Amino acid sequence: MDHAELTSAFLKLYGKSEQSIRYFFAPGRVNLIGDHIDYNGGMVMPVAISLGITAVIRKRDDQTIRLNSTDRATQIIIDLENDIKFDENAGWGNYPMGVINHLKAAKLALCGADVLFHSTLPIGAGLSSSACLEILTGYSMMKLNDLKVDKLALALLCQEVENKFIGVQCGIMDQFAIALGKKGHAMYLNSSNLECEHIPFETEDYKLLIINSNVARELADSIYNFRRKQCLAALQAIQQERPIKFLCDAKFSEIEELIEDDEIKSRAKHAVWENQYVQEAKEALEEGDLKTFGECMDASHLSLANDYEVSTKELDVLVDGVRSTEDCIGARMTGAGFGGCVIGLVHKDSLQATKDYVANHYKMYTQMEADFYDCEVVDGVRELLS
Ligand code: GLA
Q1: What's the CA-to-centroid distance between 293 and ligand 1, angstroms?
Q2: Which domains, and CATH codes, for the chain?
Q3: Which member of 174, 221, 249, 307 is catalytic?
Q4: Is 0.85 surpassed by the pTM of this model?
Q5: Cα of 245 to ligand 1 centre, how many Å?
Q6: Any residues with CB less than 8 A from the CB of 43 and at least 6 apart, and which?
Q7: pLDDT (tens digit, 9 = 90+) per residue, 341-376?
Q8: Is 174 a catalytic residue?
Q9: Is the pLDDT of residue 185 over 80?
Q10: pLDDT 10s digits, 87-115
């Protein structure tokens, strides 16, 4: 939907008013490398992508917020004068509800608003649609109320929403990337202190291809929380000997000697390996050595699949498929796993041939259809000119 279509959909839904209509956009995110270590003090390398969610928004004179989405039937109504609680039946609405609840708790004075969301980002596909909706809601509500936005503080607030209101113990990576992403750059983010370097993501003739497995990430949240517990167990085992703060700071010898349980040992190995791959990938990217960058992606996928066990048959089939094409130089699952997407660095001249091949390969091994997106790396959340 373009701007004019969105505006007319908004007016059809909410009618006319004296107040002006404003437009905001938040991107989705793809993590190039460094998964499941943003809660272990590791380095991660996400990018903000051109698929995302637009909010069309207009002030109201009362304390009611109405939220609608172009692709969802449910309307969410929030009364700012009442407490906002998580509601099983509200589905996607819990993300904006959680953010508004936390903004209120931070004592920010908010006015009522009518909002229409429109997404080009596949929902629940591991491209951070939930963090996108959170950051978008927070940013547009604050801007609408003439509040100064500190994007890092907003990212932290939205992470807290996810942890406390939604109940997923996620790290900071998604919210950070969506709030602070930079066009044409990968973010080299240190999750232990939130220092971030923006590194030009110059891949010359190679394109970032995103492939959606179309496997719903249903169990993902509970498995995610369980992995966090396992990492904590690993950390505590090592802390009995050495007071490290984060699991990514462990040494291999410590993992071997101090952790008894084999499964926990594997989780810890992933954290340490993955952190090293990100650092190697960063150096490779700075040196323009895409071959090594791709090798780091491959190694990262194997670690996520074998040691961290968050890949699935479908994701592995996609990675194998895209990687077996001649013009792909690296591929891995991206994000939390258990469904969702895979990324590959593929030569631009072979994009279509690669898609065709992978689509057939995927169908043959899983009887499922994959979706493909080629995206640009874009800036984080922002207001769009009307
Ligand atoms: C989810 C979480 C992130 C991160 C990734 C895995 O996307 O929201 O914080 O842990 O999984 O890297």
Answers
A1: 21
A2: 3-199+380-384 (3.30.230.10), 201-374 (3.30.70.890)
A3: 174
A4: yes
A5: 20
A6: 34, 37, 188, 189, 190, 191, 248, 275, 278, 279, 282
A7: 999 999 999 999 999 999 999 999 999 999 999 889
A8: yes
A9: yes
A10: 999 999 999 999 999 999 999 999 999 99
